[in-house]
Amino acid sequence: MKKIVVFIILILSYEIADSQVLYGVRAEQQGQEIAVYYSLESSLPCEVVLLISEDEGINWSKPLKHVSGDVGSGIRSGDKSIKWKVLEDLDHLEGNKIRFKIVVNGQKSDEAAIFLVGSKQMAKLSSQKDSLAYAFGLSVMENAKSAGFENLSDELIMQAIIDSKAGTVKLEKDKATGIINAEVRKNSQKKSDMNKKRGEDYLVANGKREGVKSTSSGLQYKSNVEGQGVMPDKNDKVTVHYHGTTIDGVVFDSSVDRGKPATFGLNQVIPGWTEGLQLMKEGSKFTFYIPQGLAYGSRAQGKIEAFSTLIFEVELIKVEKID
């Protein structure tokens, strides 16, 4: 069978050219389907039509099929997508490199491309070696996502693997590592700046809530139950129940969920705890809203991202005075 390069163009037709923004086209295979994502903003109605060419775009066929897309007016910005069950329509495309573009009133998007994997090529984990190979690929992509890398080119990732096996790489190892590390630092800084800003905004709003008090350090707290026992100082040991969450409500640690109180010295915990627990008496229940500077700061801890503002529900059960 003759191998072909297929161009697929998604054409969005409008009545009259008006202000429009088109960007961010990307494609990915989802089993038997191709999903093409793009961002578009326009005030005019449109219809999505799928065309196909088997001669590198020299001649275009009649529309292969009409597919579900944006139809109507007042299209707002944001990711949109259409899907094509390509292997049900043209099973001979299996293994080909497929290129995509979006065209809106003559405006062409950047190109996106993928290699189409057919049912014959889809991974079958029939041996330990198969599972190991798949695990390596999975690990690479999970690491990329955790580092904040989105919309990487499937084509270039596959090409890099092929080049590496053939010994014909286009980037030396040190340079490739430098590129990755630079992007990791950039993404990390962006995430850190966002966490700082979100935490600051949260505390500004939270500080206006009824019953919430603030200390000179920036720690915020609310007394839910006032106890009658002794108060600890920074050298004492305490036994507490606590439930810790991010400002998004993600639980990262909870003695309550474990069903067992925790005992520790007040000089062994984050500054927000050391300060906050000294405001409580035995039997008290407080909520602490701890700025990132009084929590873990730049250190990520499990589910806690760097520069995160934290919330703790704390019950002071017992104080052990240390001379």
Order of secondary-structure elements = EEEEEEHEEEHHHEEEEHEHEE
Uncertain stretches: 1-18, 58-78
CA radius of gyration is: 28 Å
> What's the number of helices?
6
How many structural domains?
2
Give the number of DSSP strands.
Answer: 16
Beta-strand fraction estimate: 25-35%
Average the pLDDT over all residues and give the rounded result.
76
Content-based structural category: alpha+beta
- Helix fraction? 25-40%
Shape: elongated
Largest sheet entry: 7 strands, antiparallel
Give the termini distance in whole angstroms. 87 Å
Structure description:
This protein has two domains: 1-120; 213-320, Roll (Chitinase A, domain 3). The N and C termini lie far apart (87 Å). With 323 residues, it is α+β, with helices and mostly antiparallel strands. The strands form three sheets. Strands 10, 11, 12, 13, 14, 15 and 16 form a seven-stranded antiparallel beta sheet that branches. It has helices at residues 86-89, 128-146, 154-166, 173-206, 255-258, 271-277, and strands at residues 6-13, 20-30, 33-42, 47-53, 65-66, 79-84, 97-104, 107-108, 112-115, 213-214, 220-225, 237-246, 251-254, 262-265, 285-290, 310-320.
Task: Map the helices and strands.
Layout: E1 6-13, E2 20-30, E3 33-42, E4 47-53, E5 65-66, E6 79-84, H1 86-89, E7 97-104, E8 107-108, E9 112-115, H2 128-146, H3 154-166, H4 173-206, E10 213-214, E11 220-225, E12 237-246, E13 251-254, H5 255-258, E14 262-265, H6 271-277, E15 285-290, E16 310-320
Parallel strand pairs: 1-7
Antiparallel strand pairs: 1-4, 2-3, 3-6, 4-5, 7-8, 7-9, 10-11, 11-15, 12-13, 12-14, 12-16, 15-16
